[in-house]
Amino acid sequence: MSKSNRTDTPLRAARAQISNPEITVHAMYRSAIGIDVHLNLLVCCHQKQVAGHREQSESRDFNTDRASIDAFAAWCRECNPDIILMESTGSLWQSPYEALERAGFTSEQLALINARDAKAAAGRKTDRKDASRLASLARTGNFKKSFVPEKAFRLQRVISRDLQKNRNDISRTSNRFGKSLNLTGCRPTTVFSDIRGGKAASLILMAKLRDDPHLFDVIKQNSRRLRASPEQIMQALNFEIEPMMKEQILALRKKIDQLEEYDRSTFERLRQLQAPYEKDIQLLITITGIQERSARMIYAELCADLKDHFPTSEQFTSWLGICPGDNTSAGKQKSGKCPKGNKHLRRTLIEAARGLVVGGTAALKEKFQVLKMRRGYRRAMVAFAHLLARIIYSVLTHQKGFEPYQSTAFRDTLMERAKNGVKQLLKLKGTKYVIADGLVVETKTGAILGAVVSS
Q: Does 287 lie in the same domain as 393?
């Protein structure tokens, strides 16, 4: 008997089972479109179920100019799919997404997923295959839909994120401004706490750079609230600056002023966009440590109906990426590193958490101190930002301002540690200690080691 005859019967039986129309994967949607988004190309695949269990597939390519985008939206409208799925490739997805919204598709019909959730196997990746795989994922419902706010909030996101980047530009340019002054021999940071934002420091430095003949008089007039004396300031700045270097430093100062003006005008645009949501902004400001700027940048990353998208605070913090990670394998708990999430909102939250630690209520400060004792400063700050995210979720979903509360968490933790320390002391082998009248006494020598709070 030949080898092919020996394996022919079981192979045919397996093929017969696979082709059996009773054995099929039930799709969640009868028709779907998968879109592979590129800078200058949209590769689309439309899959739909026809008579019986057969599947019909059609692929189309579109450019990304205005006419092609409109043609793409019209083709999708003509196909009339139950759902459209595309990858969130940077900012490239937004123009086709908005074109589909204009064509009449609702947020329930449009789905956006992270590219890592639909990654192809190595050696099997083409644009057509990517689009087909997205369409198959859409039909079976085997995808995790990303949070996409309405267009008004998407515009707020763009502006708030640009504000964050502009603040970074201001910080970098200010550092270069200070280093350039240091190169000339001047040491302004030894006598000024803020060489960029301080009004007195700015006036004195500009007088120095413009060779004001009455520099010492300018220092006297503007140094009343400075820690350094006028003589110390004059001594720190008494260096010759070459003309070309002086022009370079003045240009850096001008750039800082331009960036700050851009920051002010951009923030005003954000304030205008958020005028309809002023009530929610004021609710966020009730949280101690969150000022108007932080409140507006936090709200720009959210939406008006937060509870509809995130039914629980756990889901909200998971999307944000500020909660402990879940990494268990073979019954062992591995790294609890935070998952990836909204890095822009997470950064703002951590900055606000630092403000709460400095100027927050006593209860919140005690909560941070307890976390710091257990986990260290950096982990405690992330855990505290997680607490702040839950407070924000509660304030916005219940439409009720934050009410400070009293806490004894720090005191209780210290007492618990003291009691445990005494217990460990009494259990030491080879020596015996007793507690008498609140004093720890070594029984062998009678030496008093210290006083404790008697339990």
A: yes
